[in-house]
Amino acid sequence: MKLFKGKKGEELALNFLENNGYKLIEKNFKSKFGEIDLIMKDGEVIVFVEVKYRLSEDYGSPKDAVTYEKMKKIIKTAEYFIVKNNLNSLYRFDVVSILKNNIEHVKNAFTL
């Protein structure tokens, strides 16, 4: 069930971002440091996107589930992606928080 919810959330987030002009680079990029749900391009900026999807707020809002430890893993994974692909462009970290079908996009949610 958790995997199904995660995939559904990622598809909702991907559709939302593509409808807002973002271009998909890669889904579910994995490294030894962790995983990044979506890597998108917003104009010339590479956007590393963490997606959180919940059906209720019984355990808090979805965006609150992005903890400091999770941020550190995402940043290390993004650094690996940048080096691996020899990229030299601007980038940022966004969170797409989905509660049922309500989508909140937090741009530049955290930084290095």
Describe the structure.
Helix content is 31%, strand content 41%. It is built from two helices and five strands. Strands 1-2-3-4-5 form a five-stranded mixed sheet. The N and C termini lie far apart (32 Å). The mean pLDDT is 92. The protein has 112 residues and is α+β, with helices and mostly antiparallel strands.
Q: How does the SSE layout of this entry go?
A:
Layout: H1 2-19, E1 23-31, E2 34-42, E3 45-54, H2 68-84, E4 91-99, E5 102-110
Parallel strand pairs: 3-4
Antiparallel strand pairs: 1-2, 2-3, 4-5
Percent of sequence in beta strands: 35-45%
> Biggest sheet: strands side by side, in what order?
1-2-3-4-5
Which structural class fits the helix and strand makeup? alpha+beta
Question: Could you give the order of the helices and strands?
Answer: HEEEHEE
Report the end-to-end length measured between terminal Cα atoms. 32 Å
Cα Rg: 13 Å
How many distinct helices?
2
Average pLDDT taken over every residue:
92
Features:
112 residues, 5-stranded mixed β-sheet, 2 helices, 31% helix, globular
Nutshell version of this structure?
31% of the residues lie in helices and 41% in strands. The chain is of the alpha+beta class.
